[in-house]
Amino acid sequence: xHIMITRAIVGEWLQAYLNREIDAAYLARWASTALxxxxxxxxxxxxxxxxxxxxxxxASRGDGFTWEQLCAWLDMLGYEPxxxxxxxxxxxxxxxxxxxxxxxxxIDSAPLGG
Length: 114
What we know:
Strand content: 5-15%
Helix content: 40-55%
Strand order of the largest sheet: 1-2
Order of helices and strands: EHHEHHH
Number of strands: 2
């Protein structure tokens, strides 16, 4: 029995990578298995096949993936990534430094001129 591989499934695996639930090597192994043992859902063949092959190729360098690669793959699959930031604490449990927030000139300027 072959597993049906859809755009949504590949998108979920890319999301797991972005969320650091899996590493690049694991994603590449999954892509390889999906290509050899899965069936690509009709209508998704071009985007899914191209994405899986590119994941394998990029992972073979051992560097992980660039943001641009991930965005291109998600775009090919019909997704647009949205980034959510969550504050973290240092190992001692104190909040991260916020002294940059005291710089009113920095606060008044918007990123990328927006």
